[in-house]
Amino acid sequence: MTEMKLAPSKSRMGSRGRPEESRAAILDAAVREFARAARVNKALLYYYFKDKEALYNAVLDQVFGGLVAAIGEVLSRDLPPKEKILTYASTHFDYVANHPLYPRIVQAEMMSGSRGRAPHLERIAKQYFRPVFGGLAAVLRDGQGKGEFRGVDPMHFIPSMIAMIVFYFTNAPVMRMVTGRDPFSPEFLAQRRAAVLDFISAALFQQPDERSRK
Length: 214
Hints:
The chain is built from ten helices and no strands. It is mainly α.
């Protein structure tokens, strides 16, 4: 799927005060983009997706389902805890880097949740986020039991680790302004990926001198 290009607007789409307009803009863009990419008209599009809600659910399932499938494959491997957690982080980073719509959709859903009941977000959390959290928590417990990981609390470490991976992409426009560089250039992405893995390693892995003191 190619990246959706939202039409410019005088209102601030995505502001905390107007999440409904942001979501509507994404839905409208999805209809236009899917029709263009599939080379079909809207009537045929709605033959397969009965309405915008069905289309939006399909977009969410494609985006989040693809990520969870990639992560789930990593978490199911028989790998040492250190290798598994770094492979997970690399996979998550690479997925977001190759799916530019992901940060935009995540932000829209998170903001809808801040305004009250969010049925889409509730479904996503139950169907996709909860299994990933459980899988990552199991890796942390395994690594801690083997003396490879520090005694971090999964409730706090996992969100921090995910933020470390995802925030770069949601903050990319600011990074461009601050650094004057293209945050999506292969060189810059490779540097950021390495920095993320280094940060996670430093925050989580037991150092030899720490083990000797136990």
